[in-house]
Every structure is written in structure tokens, then in C-alpha cells.
């Protein structure tokens, strides 16, 4: 058996590879050399790509599955979004586009091994990454209510590699590591660099995107480095829309009325948001004080703006804006009643709205002739489709010192990170303000701030006949806060017409008022110990313990056991067992929002409230508790000549899983009790939803990662396979707060089977990469509608990606390619729902519903 070689600071390369920096220590660049001979000496697989060569992405000598994706591998994708890059590289990692999804449009939620985005711990250079401020209120079943980090701000140009630990690791790293850990390792070169310009668009001729990125390494005297990466992106919106039948009917009129000329075609755009001024800068630096002491610092500044669509507001029947009886009659406001409590509108009777065009009826024309009467049609005669705008600002900074004191290695660091999302609405109304309402609103903001301090120690010890036992221990203190920033008054105020049943606040996304604004925080401490030893030359075992104490809900103790047995030179077996937990985020405990939901094709206004809010508490809301998990995993690694194969089974039981409840209808019979509890205007709230420990689930699956290299067509060929089978069962749920459609989305909302097969071929100056992506059947839903009206089982599909690169000279490479080159169509909405809400495809598809995308890229290295 080949023994693990110790690094300069005393760690074994094996421990580093398994833990991505055992006890939080940043992985040494020496442990991941590009040269294959060096990699073998370090007892890890070759995990860096030289030129156009692909390589195995998993470490063989590890008791848990770890994927290594190089920076070059990430770039073999038309998208420059980090999420899209990883979806095609990691088995059981999924995400989807977010067309009309409120704040989830700004930060796409992801999931690993069938669990939500906040069940995967994200690290940068081995340090915990702060979570995003955005909570995925409409995140697509699995991610409903998730608040995970925003990994899309991390540009591929800044990375040396991405390391993905597909195994529960809460006992090692703490909360959020139930599904696994992803570590983004920043470049650390002290010389050279690159500039890349990419441009592409969809086959449909929209969504044009331009990306410019660059990287440069600079020496920091002879003993250090500073590596700077920057990226700038823009992307046009896409539209996969059809005219809504209700809008078309009003535009055409009927036998008694002329058509409405104010109707837009399409009335509602369904597609990707427009992205503007998307920039990010990452800096990584290090300095050797002496042979035993190393200083390091890294951080980022990022910002982007997005503008997306909302649902169309029908000018005849939109509730509490145009009508309160489902479109039978128009909602008419009385000016005098609002101003002095004395009715002054002389119009007597009703304005019928169940006609071709209400504007062309004599009743409507007589009503608006009286200045003391009005309807919102006078401002938006063709209805309206609000536009949701957002700006995401993200920053982080970490600094530390690591080195050697006698036999001990140490790493002390401190860092902070923040993510702020500022929201706005265009082309909307605050109906309760009547005709004095503005149409554009600043609706407020969310901000997440986290501060972390770590002190870690490790060394090798000998106990009896056991030598080189790896021992690590450490301490972590963390504080996080979630702040809601107040919106402008017009976005949340209950105007003078609220008592006449006109909706309160900016319609589509109500602004945050003074009762919602404020800051909540919590802190926690963690202490851990980690031991790993070879009991024999062929048997490696490990044990980790971690104790954490939270200021809000108490303490927890978790453990992890790992083992690897080397059966032959080619075959080894591995297994792990662990317990874990995920603390509810401060945002989930305190967030307030108003969203528009679809129920059987109808739009309803849903209020999202903290679980202890009087409205939530009235309908069963309770203080959130942490999720707890128990994980089991087993697999094997097979290596023979140019063949590399890992197969791993996992089983994750989660109890008290936190999720957003289903919409609970606010009943008229409850209005008086709700007012007594302090809820204002309950008659204007259709439904309420809140966060709750609703579910117990069991998720199991199989991940297969393989690669094979050979000489082919007078060149070098690499074949890579990544396959994932994921199956989730809901063992227990609360029928009072969860409907069966939500349960089915958790169980079947993502394909049970996912696979990518990649062929990378290279010659002297020419290289090619062909990737096939398989997506199995899944439960397709339209937005958040899980009724039979808006859902069905979608068919399996295959997409093909192709990229060809040519080295014009040693430092200049031209690339062209296409994602979904054969334009495989996403699942269309079924008959009866197609186009009803302006869409053609289901929102919940596992691959891009926009169709084929072609691109070109120029890369210059220096």
C-alpha cells in the first residue's frame, strides 16, 4: 500500500484530499499538482487539466466520495453561470431556471442529493461562505423556503478547482452540511493570467449574453502572491410566451363591445430576466513570513441587477384591484367616502365586468363621468403586468495565519460576508391609494450578514503500534443577522380606499412596512475533534465529533464514522455513517413577504409571515426547531490502468425538515378573531403561509463517477460518466399545513435519474468536447400550482452539448459551441393549460426551457 505523504506543514495529502483542508485549513497547492507524476506521488488522482485534456474528477483514496472539477472543465460550457457549469459536472446536483418566481429569480436555488440548497455547506478556500439574503419562496418544491448561499457570484475564471464532498459532514463543518460540502478553491498563481471574451444567444434570437473576464497573478515580493480575477456580464431577457386567452378575448371584444386597444401582445412575458451590470471581483493572496508561518487573505465584491416579469392583471376580474366578485362587476371607489366618510359617488348600480370590454359599456362610461367615482381601469385600462426588479450586492473578506508550532499545525482566521437584495416594482399600483397611486415602487430590501472566527489545530500522534494518527481539533464562533429594510411609504401603506376592499401596498410584491422592518441576529459556537488512523495497511478509519451551541435554540452533538478497506491494488471499499443537523436560518424565522400564487389557474395574494406572527400562530405556526439527520453511505473505488470508477450508495433520513407550508386560506369567519389578535385588514389576505418543521423524509440514491482514457483517431481521448439516481420519500407530514401536491413535488420534483457522458478529444492544436445529458421523468408543475390542472408527469429527455477549440498560437485559443445543439424542446404545458398564463413550457423543468444556445469564445493567456 502507498502511504500518505506529509505536506510541508505536516498534513498528509490524503487527509487534505478528504477534508478539503482538514479542520478548515486551506488545501495546499502542492497537493494538487498539474503534473501526473507529481499527483501519483501525492497519492491522489490527477485532478488538474493541462491544455485541453480532461481528467478523473474523484479522489480514489478517500473513504467518502469527492469530486474534483478543474477550472478548465468548468469552462467547457456555453453558460458562464457557476450553477450551470456544476449541473453538468456533478451527479445528483440539480438546478433550474426561474422565470416568474419573485426573489428566487434573482438567486437560483440548487440542490445536492435531493436536499435543498441550504443543506449543502459552501466553502471558499476552506472557509464558510455566507448565505444569500434571498429566500426561495417559489423555489420549485425541494427548495421552497430555502436560504442557501449564492454561488453564481463566483466566476469560473477565479477558480483553480471545485471540490464536492458528496457526504454528510455536519460533524466536521457544522450546520448546513447534511447533503455535503462544496469548496471553491481560488487561483493562487503569482504570475501569468488570461483574458476571455464570450458571446452567445439562443436559437430563438433572444437572450444574447456577453461575458468578459480576466485573471492575473502578481508576486508579493519573493515570498507571496496576489491573484486577481474579475468578470463582467450582461444578458438580455428571453420570451417563451404566447398571448393569454383572457387578454386576447378582451382585445377582441364581443358582439356588444369593441375590442380593448390597450391590451399588449403578449400581455405577459414568460422567460429569463434581463441581467445588467453583473460584475464581480475576487482577490486571493498569501505571504510566507518564514518557513513555518503563512499569512493569507481573500475576498470579493460583486453586484448585479435583474428585471423580470410577473403575472398579468386582468382588467375585468383581478381581485381587490378591478373586482371583488370574480369579474361579475367592477370594483368602484367612492372618493367622498374615503376622504370624509360621506358617500359622494352618484353612480347607482353595478358596472358589469363579464363582458367583452368593460371600457366600451355605457355603465362604465357613466361611472367615470362622475369625478367622485373611479376604477383602476382609468390608470391601467388594459390591465397590467408588473416588472420585478432587484439588485444583489455581495461582499466578503477573510484573513488568517497558519503554520507550525512544534509538532502542531495551526490555522487562525476571521472573516465577514454580506449579501443584500434590494427590491423594486415597475408598472404596478397600490390600489388602496386610488388614482393617486404611483406606478413604480422601491419595496425594500433583505440583507444577510455573517461573521466567522476559526482557530484550528492538528498534528500526528502515535499510540502504541499505531503511527501517524491524524488528530485535529478546533473552535468556531459565528454570528449571523438578517435585516429587512423598509420600503418607500407608497409601497406598503394602507391608503384611504383600503376600507373599500382595494388591495394594500404595491401589487405583486408589497413593500416592507415599519412593522416588518428590523434586524434579527443569533450567534453560535462550535468545538470539534477529528481522528483518522490506519488500523492496518489496508484499513483506514476515522471519527469526528462536533458540539455546537446556538443562542436561539440550544445545543447539539453530532458524530461521523468513516472507513476504507483496500481489497486489492485495483479495488477498495468505503463507508460512512453520520448524524447531522441544520439550524433554521434567521431569515426563515423572521422573514415577511407578500407573493402572488397560482391555485388551479387563479392568482391569489398570499402573505408569508414568521411562524410566531399572530396571523401564522392563529393557523398553527410554531417556533422553528433544527432539522436532524442520520446518514449512511457505502461504495467502492475501482482503478485499473486508464479506467477509474466510483460507485456510492447513500441514505439520508431527515426529521423535522423545514419547509414553507402550503397556502392556508384566511376564512371570513375568522376575521373578527384575527383583528382581535392584531391582524389589520384580514379581509384583504386570501391566504397565509409560514415556515414549519413539516416533514420527515428519507432520501436515498446512487452516484456513479467514471472515466477512461485512450488513444483515438491519432489523438488523446477521455470519456467521463457522471450518473445519479435520487429517490425521496415523505415519511410524515402535517396534513393541516401541507397538501398532497407539495408532497409529490418533494418526492418527484426532480428527475430520479440524471446522467452526463462526456467525450473529450484532443490533438496538437485542436480539441473537442461532446457531452450528452440525460434527464429522467419528473413531476412537472406550472409555477407553484400543484393541482391536477397545472401538473403532470413529464417525459425523459436528452440534450447534447458540443464545443470545438483551436489554438491559433500558444497563448490564443478560439472556441465555438452550443448547448442543447439539437434544440431539444422542454416539456410543454398540457392541453387545457397551454397559454392560460402566457407560458408554453412548465417552469419546473430540469434543463433550460429556452432551447438551444450557441456561443463563441476567445481566450488569451499571458
UniProtKB/TrEMBL annotation:
<feature type="domain" description="TonB-dependent receptor-like beta-barrel">
    <location>
        <begin position="408"/>
        <end position="821"/>
    </location>
</feature>
<dbReference type="InterPro" id="IPR012910">
    <property type="entry name" value="Plug_dom"/>
</dbReference>
<dbReference type="GO" id="GO:0009279">
    <property type="term" value="C:cell outer membrane"/>
</dbReference>
<feature type="domain" description="TonB-dependent receptor plug">
    <location>
        <begin position="61"/>
        <end position="181"/>
    </location>
</feature>
<feature type="signal peptide">
    <location>
        <begin position="1"/>
        <end position="33"/>
    </location>
</feature>
<keyword id="KW-0732">Signal</keyword>
<keyword id="KW-0998">Cell outer membrane</keyword>
<dbReference type="Pfam" id="PF07715">
    <property type="entry name" value="Plug"/>
</dbReference>
<dbReference type="Pfam" id="PF00593">
    <property type="entry name" value="TonB_dep_Rec_b-barrel"/>
</dbReference>
<keyword id="KW-0798">TonB box</keyword>
<keyword id="KW-0675">Receptor</keyword>
<comment type="similarity">
    <text>Belongs to the TonB-dependent receptor family.</text>
</comment>
<keyword id="KW-0472">Membrane</keyword>
<dbReference type="InterPro" id="IPR037066">
    <property type="entry name" value="Plug_dom_sf"/>
</dbReference>
<keyword id="KW-0812">Transmembrane</keyword>
<dbReference type="InterPro" id="IPR036942">
    <property type="entry name" value="Beta-barrel_TonB_sf"/>
</dbReference>
<dbReference type="InterPro" id="IPR000531">
    <property type="entry name" value="Beta-barrel_TonB"/>
</dbReference>
<keyword id="KW-1134">Transmembrane beta strand</keyword>
<protein>
    <submittedName>
        <fullName>TonB-dependent receptor</fullName>
    </submittedName>
</protein>
<dbReference type="InterPro" id="IPR039426">
    <property type="entry name" value="TonB-dep_rcpt-like"/>
</dbReference>
<keyword id="KW-0813">Transport</keyword>
Amino acid at each position: 500500500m502507498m502511504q500518505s505523504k506529509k505536506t510541508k506543514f505536516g498534513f498528509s495529502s490524503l487527509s487534505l484530499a478528504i477534508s478539503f483542508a482538514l479542520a478548515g485549513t486551506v488545501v495546499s497547492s502542492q497537493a494538487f499538482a498539474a503534473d501526473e507524476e507529481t499527483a501519483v506521488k501525492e497519492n491522489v488522482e490527477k485532478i488538474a487539466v493541462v491544455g485541453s485534456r480532461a481528467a478523473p474528477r474523484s479522489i480514489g483514496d478517500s473513504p467518502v466520495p469527492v469530486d474534483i472539477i478543474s477550472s478548465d472543465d468548468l469552462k467547457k460550457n456555453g453558460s458562464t453561470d457557476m450553477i450551470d457549469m456544476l449541473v453538468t459536472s456533478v451527479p445528483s446536483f440539480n438546478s433550474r431556471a426561474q422565470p416568474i418566481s419573485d426573489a428566487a429569480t434573482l438567486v437560483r436555488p440548487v440542490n445536492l442529493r435531493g436536499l435543498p440548497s441550504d443543506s449543502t455547506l459552501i466553502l471558499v478556500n476552506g472557509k464558510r461562505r455566507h448565505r444569500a439574503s434571498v429566500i426561495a419562496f417559489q423555489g420549485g418544491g425541494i427548495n421552497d423556503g430555502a436560504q442557501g448561499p449564492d454561488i453564481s457570484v463566483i466566476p469560473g475564471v477565479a477558480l483553480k478547482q471545485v471540490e464536492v464532498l458528496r457526504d454528510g459532514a455536519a460533524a466536521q463543518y457544522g450546520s448546513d452540511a447534511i447533503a455535503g460540502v462544496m469548496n471553491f478553491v481560488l487561483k493562487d498563481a503569482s504570475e501569468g493570467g488570461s483574458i476571455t471574451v464570450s458571446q452567445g444567444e439562443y436559437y430563438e434570437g433572444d437572450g444574447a449574453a456577453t461575458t468578459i473576464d480576466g485573471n492575473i497573478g502578481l508576486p508579493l515580493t519573493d515570498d507571496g502572491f496576489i491573484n486577481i480575477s474579475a468578470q463582467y456580464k450582461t444578458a438580455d431577457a428571453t420570451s417563451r410566451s404566447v398571448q393569454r386567452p383572457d387578454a386576447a378575448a378582451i382585445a377582441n371584444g364581443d358582439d356588444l363591445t369593441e375590442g380593448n386597444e390597450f391590451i399588449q401582445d403578449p400581455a405577459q412575458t414568460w422567460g429569463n430576466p434581463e441581467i445588467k451590470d453583473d460584475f464581480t471581483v475576487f482577490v486571493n493572496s498569501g505571504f510566507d513570513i518564514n518557513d513555518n508561518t503563512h499569512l493569507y487573505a481573500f475576498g470579493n465584491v460583486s453586484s448585479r441587477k435583474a428585471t423580470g416579469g410577473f403575472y398579468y392583471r386582468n382588467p375585468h376580474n383581478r381581485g381587490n384591484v378591478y373586482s371583488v366578485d370574480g369579474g361579475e362587476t367592477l370594483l368602484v371607489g367612492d372618493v367622498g367616502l374615503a376622504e370624509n366618510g360621506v358617500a359622494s359617488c352618484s353612480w347607482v348600480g353595478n358596472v358589469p365586468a363579464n363582458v367583452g370590454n368593460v371600457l366600451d359599456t355605457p355603465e362604465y362610461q357613466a361611472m367615470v363621468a362622475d369625478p367622485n367615482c373611479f376604477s383602476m381601469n382609468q390608470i391601467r385600462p388594459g390591465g397590467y403586468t408588473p416588472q420585478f426588479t432587484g439588485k444583489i450586492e455581495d461582499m466578503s473578506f477573510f484573513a488568517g495565519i497558519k503554520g507550525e508550532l512544534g509538532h502542531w499545525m495551526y490555522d487562525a482566521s476571521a472573516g465577514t460576508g454580506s449579501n443584500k437584495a434590494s427590491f423594486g416594482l415597475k408598472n404596478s399600483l397600490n390600489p388602496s391609494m386610488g388614482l393617486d397611486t404611483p406606478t413604480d415602487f422601491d419595496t425594500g430590501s433583505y440583507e444577510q450578514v455573517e461573521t466567522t472566527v476559526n482557530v484550528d489545530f492538528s498534528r500526528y500522534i502515535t499510540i502504541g503500534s499505531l503511527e501517524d494518527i491524524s488528530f485535529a481539533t478546533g473552535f468556531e464562533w459565528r454570528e449571523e443577522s438578517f435585516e429587512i429594510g423598509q420600503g418607500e411609504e407608497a409601497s406598503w401603506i394602507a391608503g384611504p380606499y383600503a376600507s373599500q376592499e382595494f388591495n394594500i401596498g404595491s401589487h405583486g410584491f408589497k413593500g416592507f412596512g415599519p412593522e416588518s422592518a428590523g434586524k434579527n441576529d443569533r450567534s453560535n459556537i462550535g468545538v470539534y475533534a477529528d481522528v483518522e488512523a490506519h488500523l492496518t495497511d489496508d484499513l483506514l478509519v476515522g471519527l469526528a465529533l462536533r458540539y455546537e451551541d446556538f443562542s436561539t435554540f440550544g445545543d447539539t452533538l453530532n458524530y461521523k464514522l468513516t472507513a476504507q478497506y483496500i481489497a486489492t491494488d485495483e479495488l477498495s471499499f468505503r463507508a460512512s455513517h453520520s448524524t447531522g443537523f441544520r439550524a433554521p436560518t434567521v431569515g426563515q424565522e423572521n422573514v415577511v413577504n407578500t407573493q402572488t400564487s397560482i391555485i388551479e389557474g387563479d392568482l391569489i395574494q398570499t402573505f408569508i409571515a414568521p411562524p410566531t406572527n399572530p396571523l401564522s400562530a392563529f393557523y398553527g405556526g410554531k417556533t422553528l426547531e433544527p432539522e436532524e439527520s442520520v446518514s449512511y453511505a457505502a461504495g467502492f473505488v475501482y482503478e485499473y490502468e486508464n479506467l477509474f470508477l466510483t460507485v456510492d450508495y447513500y441514505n439520508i433520513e431527515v426529521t423535522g425538515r423545514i419547509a414553507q407550508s402550503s397556502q392556508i386560506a384566511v376564512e371570513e369567519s375568522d376575521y373578527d378573531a384575527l383583528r382581535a389578535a392584531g391582524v389589520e385588514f384580514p379581509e384583504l389576505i386570501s391566504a397565509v403561509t409560514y415556515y414549519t418543521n413539516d416533514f420527515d423524509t428519507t432520501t436515498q440514491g446512487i452516484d456513479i463517477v467514471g472515466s477512461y482514457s485512450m488513444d483515438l483517431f491519432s489523438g488523446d481521448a477521455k470519456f467521463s460518466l457522471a450518473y445519479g439516481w435520487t429517490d425521496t420519500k415523505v415519511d410524515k407530514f402535517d396534513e393541516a399545513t401541507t397538501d398532497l401536491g407539495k408532497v409529490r413535488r418533494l418526492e418527484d420534483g426532480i428527475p430520479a435519474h440524471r446522467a452526463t457522458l462526456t467525450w473529450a478529444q484532443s490533438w496538437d492544436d485542436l480539441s473537442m468536447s461532446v457531452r450528452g445529458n440525460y434527464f429522467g421523468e419528473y413531476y412537472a408543475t406550472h409555477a407553484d400550482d400543484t393541482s391536477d390542472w397545472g401538473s403532470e408527469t413529464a417525459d425523459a429527455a436528452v440534450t447534447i452539448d458540443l464545443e470545438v477549440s483551436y489554438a491559433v498560437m500558444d497563448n490564443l485559443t478560439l472556441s465555438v459551441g452550443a448547448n442543447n445543439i439539437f434544440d431539444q424542446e422542454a416539456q410543454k404545458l398540457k392541453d387545457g393549460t397551454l397559454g392560460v398564463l402566457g407560458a408554453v413550457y412548465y417552469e419546473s423543468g430540469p434543463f433550460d426551457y429556452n432551447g438551444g444556445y450557441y456561443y463563441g469564445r476567445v481566450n488569451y493567456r499571458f
